[in-house]
Design a protein that fits this description.
By secondary structure, the protein is mainly alpha-helical. Helix content is about 60%, strand content about 0%. The longest helix has about 40 residues. The chain is globular and about 65 Å long.
Length: about 425
């Protein structure tokens, strides 16, 4: 977790070992903690997605003698995606909980989700051919886990702290009753909500250039404060329906191999495989000579990791706070990349991030993936020129741009004692 330099903390009075410290009351702080919580289950996606992808019929599943092993491997990976709502509920509980003891809030969030999701399912039964669908394909899908967790945390904090503290069994009962009530309301509203979500997904599909561009811009703009995770959860795991009850850009791409999936993913490949590594190279070349070796040891490995695995934070955090105009340019270029990729009707995706590893792994299920390579080369050149010019022209304080302080050590005579 990144601690922002402008974050202020307040000293809370002692209220016992399990008492929660003072929480920031701003909506931004709560959303940031929610995003950090959602990032926990999303961090489990790379391993699960890799297992799921390796077991597909076009990889290990193509070999007859490995068919059973491939099914086991794929099943292990799908277990995470199938139970994503419960994982989101746990993640939000851990992100929003400020007390030392997390067991109670986590259990409350799970109870809330399970009750809410089951009530909605009873009111909106699945079709006969989808009765064995996992929880991720139930009505509301992963959104049920998010709503259930937020409901439980709002109640738990009020009934287990302060003077109105009640025993845990009573708190669980209140959470379950609230989940029953909210689940009933959501269940009755689901047909209308489903029509609205379907219309929204259709609108994005019809205007993928604009929709993808806006998503890419907001994804990077909100990244430093962790508020991009709720946005990712909606775009990657809730919107769009590719049949069989499967929803979300990532599941539709990885599980169903939908040729229309990837609207919210493909445009990240040029940025992560070439753009940000080129930015790291530009910052290294712009460093003062006396700092260039140290900066190179920091940025060049980070650029390689970003290119291969799509891990962008080590590079982005080196300039987001000291050269925010550059980060704003980075967010605009990311949105532009998603818009261009959708304009060219390229559909590619990932299970972890938009690095070369995911590009190669998912090449066979992507649409027109070769076009990403020249676009990546162009983005690499564009990032390098913009970063090199802006850093040197406006003297931006990227790594290695601060002159070393003069050496003011004084030589003392060995015969003269210190006072």
């Amino acid at each position: 977790m990144v601690t922002l330099p402008f974050t202020r903390t307040k000293t809370a009075p002692h209220r016992g070992d399990n008492a929660a410290p003072a929480d920031p009351t701003t909506l931004t702080a709560r959303l940031r903690r929610m995003g950090q919580g959602l990032a926990l289950p999303i961090a489990a996606m790379p391993a699960a997605g890799l297992l799921l992808r390796l077991g597909q019929d076009d990889l290990l599943g193509r070999y007859q003698h490995l068919h059973t092993a491939a099914a086991v491997i794929s099943g292990a990976g799908s277990a995470v995606l199938d139970n994503l709502p419960a994982l989101f509920a746990v993640g939000i509980a851990l992100g929003l909980n400020r007390a030392k003891d997390a067991a109670g809030p986590v259990l409350a969030c799970l109870i809330s989700y399970l009750v809410l999701a089951k009530v909605v399912l009873v009111l909106n039964p699945l079709p006969a051919d989808q009765l064995d669908a996992p929880p991720a394909r139930w009505p509301y899908g992963a959104l049920a886990g998010i709503v259930g967790a937020l409901l439980a945390m709002a109640i738990w904090k009020r009934v287990t702290t302060g003077r109105s503290r009640i025993p845990p069994f009573a708190a669980y009962g209140i959470v379950a009753l609230a989940a029953l009530t909210v689940g009933t309301l959501l269940g009755l509203a689901y047909p209308t909500v489903e029509r609205a979500l379907t219309a929204s997904a259709a609108a994005v599909a019809d205007h993928a250039v604009l929709g993808g561009g806006i998503f890419g811009f907001l994804n990077r703009l909100l990244g430093p404060i962790g508020m991009h995770q709720p946005l990712n959860a909606v775009a990657w795991y809730l919107t769009g329906d590719c049949g069989g009850g499967v929803k979300g850009d990532v599941p539709c791409f990885i599980e169903r191999h939908s040729p229309e999936a990837g609207v919210f993913m493909g445009g990240f490949f040029p940025v992560y495989m070439a753009g940000l590594p080129a930015a790291a190279l530009a910052m290294w070349r712009s460093a003062l000579p006396e700092h260039r070796r140290r900066v190179g040891a920091l940025l060049l490995p980070a650029g390689s990791i970003c290119c291969l695995a799509g891990v962008s934070e080590p590079i982005e955090l080196t300039f987001v706070f000291v050269a925010f105009p550059l980060y704003l340019v980075h967010a605009v270029l990311t949105g532009l990349s998603l818009a261009i990729v959708n304009l060219l009707d390229i559909h590619a995706g990932f299970v972890f991030s938009a690095g070369a590893i995911d590009y190669v792994l998912n090449y066979s299920i992507s649409q027109r993936p070769l076009l990403l390579l020249p676009l990546a080369v162009a983005y690499g050149a564009l990032y390098y020129m913009i970063f090199r010019f802006a850093i040197t022209r406006f003297n931006l304080r990227t790594p290695g741009r601060t002159p070393a302080p003069p050496d003011d050590t004084r030589t003392e005579s060995p015969s003269r004692p210190r006072s």
